[in-house]
Specification:
heterodimer, A: mainly alpha, two-stranded antiparallel sheet, B: mainly alpha
Chain lengths: 598, 805
């Protein structure tokens, strides 16, 4: 029975999407459905996290066979500590973005298609985190892509359509490559189930698998994940798509959808392909340097790109490219010295565990900080109609809470303690430092890239801050925010609402209450970053559990327990499967009768 | 002890959090509330001092990473804590007068208190990462305080500069810390089981891995950026954009001492080899006469001391002069700590106290001058003693101490530096003779600018100056208190040594040591001669001050200035960004697609090559019929014809030949379901294409030859990669799950119909897969179709709105 909790987040997201579609008759009902759905999603994720990570006796792995088929024949959802961590990373962003959407996205757009699409996107993300099947992963990638595609071109203007075109073309190319790779993997390994694939790669002779092509096929998949994660040179869609999409959509894209690419890299290359051995090389020996190359290029290009932008959204978009580099770097670094060990939580473990932990903690930081910054930018746009530096200035005195939130988010990117970002940076730096100590090739170059990237982060963060929040308020700011927010604007003083002049001179669509909610969301995320930094032990613990799950291929295979198709049937094997329940397609004689009755 | 330390460190943060509320009640008198908080901290530090607290106390923070809020109390920690809280009381009191009528006071006091807490944290931290945490928080509060006048362009420039340099330096230090904690398997700095306690073993591990020098250099970058050592000193003069109390507090007495503190804190660790007795590495290091530590820090410190003193002579603004002077004196302390003998440690320890006392006093004097006379320009100020008599006395005491004139306290510590450099050179010989020479040279310039500062109060009053007000008591008392401290230490330096400086010295030497003696020289030692030379040459050069000043200013052009490098780097970065981005993101989807496809192909091919994949031999399967060959040949011809199509419509039509041939191929290969699907899709796509093409321009213009060649190469590479992928992956014959499924059901191979009727409830294998085995995939794809419909709706209905935006 416990297995059913695995599918709960997906069911909530799917039901919410469908209900929101049905509730289009009334905008308020639809918004309520969307908000309740987002809250329900968070609850479902929390329940799953509780069942998986906080299980008595330590983190466990739960599986759920969809349509009641057993692995590897049908599609199995697998929730281990890694999947649970990623879902827990997504949930707060989803809730924040949903709340923010309701008060920021164009009313007519919300009625039209916004909420169903938003929750379909959440469905795609959750499916990608939970599925234990390579082809099914492709399907959830498609769901994610299609919904986000529409959301990127949501306002359907010239630049939105143009951005969406680049986005969809590159991602469709990636989908095509993914199909080629998955088809190839099925042809070479004979399975689509991840656990089964891992088992077959670790012991290819037993299954008649010729293992050699899987390295190239895996590398093809890696390029697909790199497109999703937006690392150089697969990043081209990022800047324009992030600028075109409505702020809460960008928040989810940058905060969560990007992390799906990161997750897929971890899942496939540590859990599934990690155990494969080739004639003169190994998965890690080939993929490690590749990842470091992608990461280094991303860190530098993202940092340099962000340093000269003249608008907040552009700065944040390039920053995302650089930050993903920081997430990928420790993965590559740990792979290049597979024999190295480290001490984590008082126990000696593989450096790979530290590398994955680093990537996960950094991902969580980025998943909170970047949405915060994009939403703050969205609020600036709501109030002032632009995020161009030339039109902004002096906002620190006019919007102190928003400024405070923005500052904390920026500092999280820099890695200033005690914000969570510090621990992300600490772990990434530590992985590289210990990699160097263990004789990592080109270690000095990696360290230099990492430090230069960190300095670039400080450079663009401070530049953005000076341009937007310090300096003299521009004419536009003086006109639209004549007094400090919170003085009279939020106090319900109607006359102070003279700021309700839209940029084009017409009445603004944004209400005071909407701005209060927007700022509250930003502040909540900022407090979350600080709170999780002070209570970093919880985060590091969960990330370490997830990293152990990611690198523990054997435990993963054992938990999913794919039936061995070649082996003779034995009842005890089937009984050992986590999802063996009554009426399961367990393919023994009695089940055949049950199946016939269906 | 733990409770007291926690209270000392966190009380200021609590005070800072409450400041906005307090400000609503007290208004401008919030200054005295903040001063009271600082006074409580001072009291708690005194309590720690009086109870003789010593050692480590810790609360857990992130045990998984071994990071704890460990605190370590010793002489050095207590001295810095006294400075942070004691000067804090004075500065906050002074602010009450200085900040009268200024904007943003609640934020100002909150940030100052938070800074004070961070500084106390730096001083007391006993864990590498706790130290780093507070270290970065001081940088952050410094950023906010330098940018206090938020609308001034100079403040923004200065704040960003300080943040870039100090936070970046901190990150270098962090990497150094990580290497230390890796080698030592602990994050504790001092005390039992710490890095310092096991220095021998830790250093040996680092040396074996070839990481000893990198670690030392990484820490040096951290210390040098924070303590404004050359060439990272550039941020400090700009930091004077902050209100003067901030300059006095952060940028002279406390925050900039953090780097010096770090040097003192790690001195016992890095010099443990010279203290003897830790295995082979120690013997090896002892054989090398000058330890790396001395090479790095004595050089860094002496260069900074001299260069910054010269720059101070070239200054035109009193705060700028004091800023360079601060860098110079921090260089003195770093140099003293750098020299591997006991005089060095004594000099460094003593000068921390002396410099804080006279320099904070001088900054407050500068604040009074700027506030009351309305200018900070050196050439406009003179004869101030007529208007500001008490201030003049304070200035005299403090600047003579800064000059190193006996018997003022600055003299004693400088004398110790001279002694250290001389003794060291005498012992080692060779190049180390440069140490005493440079030390004297730097001190001559120090003498000159100190006298210049003093001269502002001497001579005739400049009538152009206008009316000079008297400062309020709240602004006068704090510098007076500091001048009294200078006076007392000057009269009997042993009071300070016995009270705390001796313990500080003990903290900065490896092994056991507790105190030392210092006093006016009674014999003609080399150091005395050095002092005499300094003062003598200084006095001789004084009449030429203006010429030296002009000479320095005219020499400071272009790349000679470290600022030139900073400004060009920052401006260059922005320019580079503006050049690079349009080139990379050129807006052409074609370029992007080429990168993605080529990148993916390169990764895949690289994988095949690395794993040693062999292409299967190409042979025509025996079962190939004429029909299949013809169909495939037509498909190939169609594909080639697409590239030569004269128009879009022709191209689409030719392309569809390929699609339909594939459908026919499916028919021939006994796959009617696939064939039907393919036919439907192909037809629909063709129709939609033609409809869309009707609305598009028929011709986009000629492509040039180079582009055509490039596109052909990309297309060829991608095509070959995909073809190769298909070849190598279809050559395999693993036990597939489909076969396994059939075998498991106990059916003979090929006889799978029964399986799918029994298990899937359907006759058609494809249907059963789609709606049962892999129904979840189908559900996902159905949502994709639904979303596609929504996207059409959105595109059409939102268009007018989007265009309007």
């Amino acid at each position: 029975m416990t297995g059913q909790i695995v599918i709960a987040p997906m069911l909530v997201a799917l039901s919410t999407a469908i209900l929101a579609l049905l509730a289009r008759f009334d905008g308020r009902v639809e918004k309520a459905v969307s908000l309740v759905g987002a809250g329900g999603y968070a609850v479902a994720v929390a329940a799953l996290f509780d069942a998986v990570v906080l299980a008595p006796g330590g983190p466990t792995t739960l599986t759920y066979g969809v349509s009641d088929w057993q692995a590897p024949f049908g599609i199995v959802l697998v929730a281990d500590a890694l999947s649970a961590f990623m879902l827990a990373l997504a949930a707060p962003v989803v809730v924040a973005a949903a709340v923010y959407s309701v008060v920021s996205v164009d009313e007519r757009g919300q009625r039209l298609s916004y909420h169903p699409l938003f929750h379909f996107m959440v469905l795609g993300v959750s499916g990608a985190f939970l599925t234990g099947d390579v082809f099914n992963l492709f399907v959830w990638f498609e769901v994610m892509l299609m919904s986000s595609y529409v959301l990127v071109l949501f306002y359907s203007g010239r630049e939105h359509t143009r951005a969406a075109l680049g986005y969809v073309v590159l991602n469709l190319l990636a989908s095509a490559l993914m199909l080629v790779a998955i088809g190839g993997l099925y042809a070479t390994t004979g399975t689509l189930n991840m656990a089964d694939m891992a088992r077959r790669l670790a012991d290819p002779a037993a299954y008649g698998v010729a293992v050699a092509p899987t390295l190239g096929l895996g590398a093809l998949l890696l390029s697909v994940f790199a497109v999703k994660a937006g690392t150089v040179p697969f990043h081209f869609w990022v800047p324009s798509a992030y600028r075109a999409a409505p702020a809460p959509v960008t928040a989810v894209l940058a905060g969560v959808v990007k992390k799906v690419g990161v997750y897929a890299v971890i899942r496939l290359f540590f859990t599934v392909f990690g155990g494969a051995a080739y004639a003169s090389t190994s998965t890690f020996a080939y993929v490690g340097p590749v990842l470091m190359l992608l990461a280094g290029a991303s860190i530098i290009l993202g940092g340099v790109g962000a340093a000269g932008r003249e608008d907040v959204d552009g700065l944040l978009a390039f920053s995302s490219i650089g930050q993903v580099g920081f997430i990928v770097l420790p993965l590559g670094a740990a792979m290049t010295v597979p024999a190295a060990t480290t001490t984590l939580a008082g126990a000696e473990t593989m450096l790979a565990v530290l590398g994955v932990t680093a990537a996960l903690v950094y991902s969580l930081t980025h998943a909170l900080a970047k949405p915060l910054l994009f939403l703050a930018s969205g609020t600036i746009r709501s109030a002032l109609g632009t995020t161009d530096f030339a039109q902004l200035g002096g906002l620190a005195r006019r919007t102190p809470l928003l400024a405070g939130g923005f500052l904390l988010g920026s500092l999280a990117l820099v890695g200033v303690p005690p914000i969570l970002g510090f621990f992300g940076k600490l772990l990434v730096f530590r992985t590289v430092a210990e990699g160097i100590a263990a004789g990592m090739p080109a270690g000095a170059l990696a360290a230099a890239t990492m430090l230069v990237g960190a300095i670039l982060t400080i450079a663009y963060v401070t530049r953005g801050w000076n341009q937007v929040f310090w300096g003299e308020p521009t004419e536009r700011v003086q006109q639209l925010i004549p007094v400090r927010w919170g003085r009279s604007r939020f106090a319900g003083d109607g006359d102070a609402g003279s700021s309700s002049i839209a940029p084009d001179g017409g009445p603004s669509t944004v209400t005071d209450r909407a701005l209060v909610v927007q700022v509250a969301v930003v502040v909540a995320l900022a407090l979350g970053l600080v709170g999780l930094g002070v209570g970093a032990e919880v985060v590091v613990d969960a990330a370490t559990d997830a990293a152990h799950a990611a690198t523990g291929t054997d435990a993963y295979v054992e938990a999913v327990a794919p039936v061995d198709p070649g082996a003779e049937y034995s009842p005890s094997h089937a009984a050992g499967a986590a999802n063996a329940s009554d009426g399961s397609h367990s393919l023994d004689a009695s089940a055949a009768v049950d199946g016939g009755e269906r | 002890m733990l409770e007291t330390v926690l209270a000392v460190v966190f009380l200021p943060f609590v005070g800072a959090a409450l400041t906005p509320l307090v400000y609503r009640v007290l208004g401008e008198r919030t200054a005295y509330y903040a001063a009271a908080v600082a006074a409580v901290c001072l009291g708690l530090v005194t309590r720690l001092y009086l109870t003789g607290a010593h050692g480590v106390a810790a609360v857990e923070w992130v045990p998984s990473l071994g990071v704890s809020l460990a605190f370590y109390v010793d002489g050095l920690a207590l001295l810095i804590s006294f400075l942070a809280s004691g000067v804090g009381v004075l500065i906050l009191t002074y602010s009450g007068g200085y900040m009268h009528g200024e904007p943003g006071q609640a934020k100002y006091y909150a940030t100052l208190l938070a800074f004070m807490g961070s500084m106390l944290g730096v001083a007391l931290a006993g864990d590498l990462f706790a130290l780093f945490t507070f270290w970065e928080l001081t940088s952050l509060s410094s950023f906010l305080l330098i940018g206090h006048y938020t609308s001034e362009a100079d403040s923004q420039y200065a704040a960003r500069k300080s943040m870039l340099i100090t936070v970046a330096g901190g990150l270098f230090m962090l990497v150094g810390f990580l290497l230390l904690s890796w080698a030592g398997d602990t994050t504790l700095i001092a005390g039992e089981g710490s890095l310092t306690a096991n220095a021998g073993g830790v250093i040996e591990t680092l040396r074996t891995a070839g990481l000893f020098v990198p670690t030392l250099l990484l820490l040096a970058v951290g210390a040098a950026t924070k303590s404004a050592q050359v060439p990272f000193h550039v941020w400090l003069p700009n930091a004077m954009e902050a209100p003067t109390p901030v300059s006095a507090f952060l940028h002279s007495a406390t925050m900039v001492k953090a780097g010096v503190y770090l040097v003192g804190r790690f001195r016992p660790f890095f010099l443990s080899e010279t203290a003897g007795g830790h295995g082979a590495a120690a013997a090896e290091a002892a054989a090398a006469l000058v330890p790396e530590w001395t090479v790095v820090f004595a050089t860094l410190g002496l260069v900074t001391m001299t260069v910054a003193a010269v720059l101070a002579v070239g200054s035109t603004d009193i705060k700028q002069l004091l800023a360079y002077s601060t860098a110079s004196h921090l260089g003195l302390i770093v140099a003293a700590f750098g020299i591997a003998n006991s005089y060095g440690a004594e000099g460094g320890a003593f000068h921390i106290l002396n410099h804080a006392s006279f320099k904070a006093a001088l900054f407050l004097v500068a604040g009074i001058v700027a506030h009351e006379a309305g200018t900070r320009r050196i050439d406009r100020l003179s004869g101030l003693r007529h208007d500001l008599p008490v201030t003049a006395i304070v200035a005299a005491v403090a600047s003579l101490s800064m000059a190193g004139v006996p018997p003022f306290n600055g003299f004693y510590s400088k004398e110790l530096l001279f002694e250290a450099t001389y003794e060291y050179a005498h012992e080692i010989g060779g190049l180390t003779w440069a140490f005493p020479v440079v030390a004297v040279l730097g001190s001559v310039f120090t003498f000159l600018y100190s006298i210049k500062f003093l001269s502002l109060f001497l001579g005739e009053r400049d009538e152009a100056l206008g009316h000079v007000h008297s400062p309020p008591l709240s602004m006068l008392a704090p510098p007076a208190v500091l001048a009294v401290v200078v006076g007392v230490v000057s009269l009997d330096p042993m009071i300070a040594v016995n009270a705390i400086v001796g313990e500080v010295y003990g903290s900065t030497v490896p092994g056991e040591a507790h105190s030392f003696t210092v006093g006016l020289p009674t014999a003609l030692k080399p150091a005395v001669v050095m002092s005499a030379v300094t003062i003598g040459v200084g006095a001789l050069a004084w009449p030429q001050y203006d010429r030296i000043h002009d000479g320095v200013r005219s020499a400071l052009r272009g790349p000679v200035r470290a600022d030139w490098w900073y400004d060009n780097a920052v401006a260059g970065l922005t320019a580079l960004s503006k050049r690079v981005v349009p080139r990379v993101q050129n807006g052409l989807v074609r370029t992007y697609a080429a990168w993605v496809l080529v990148g993916a192909s390169a990764l895949a091919v690289g994988g095949y090559v690395a794993a040693g994949v062999e292409l299967p031999a190409l042979a025509v399967p025996a079962e190939t019929t004429v029909a299949v060959s013809v169909v495939l040949a037509v498909a190939v011809v169609g594909a080639i014809a697409v590239t030569d199509a004269p128009s879009h419509v022709a191209g689409v039509l030719t392309l569809s030949i390929l699609g339909f041939m594939v459908a026919v191929f499916y028919v021939l290969a006994d796959a009617p379901d696939l064939a039907l699907t393919q036919l439907t899709v192909e037809t629909l796509v063709l129709v939609i294409f033609l409809l869309v093409l009707d609305r598009l321009p028929a011709w986009y213009g000629e492509t040039d030859r180079l582009t055509a060649v490039r596109d052909a190469a990309v297309a060829g590479a991608v095509g070959l990669t995909v073809a190769g992928t298909v070849l190598v992956s279809t050559a395999a014959s693993p036990d597939t799950i489909a076969e396994g499924l059939i075998a498991r059901a106990g059916l003979p191979p090929g006889e799978h119909v029964g399986l799918f009727t029994d298990y899937g409830g359907g006759q058609n294998i494809v249907n059963v897969i789609l709606v049962d085995l892999r129904a979840f995939d189908t559900m996902g794809e159905i949502s994709v179709v639904a979303m596609a419909a929504l996207s059409v709706l959105t595109l059409i209905r939102m268009r007018e709105r989007g265009e309007a935006q």
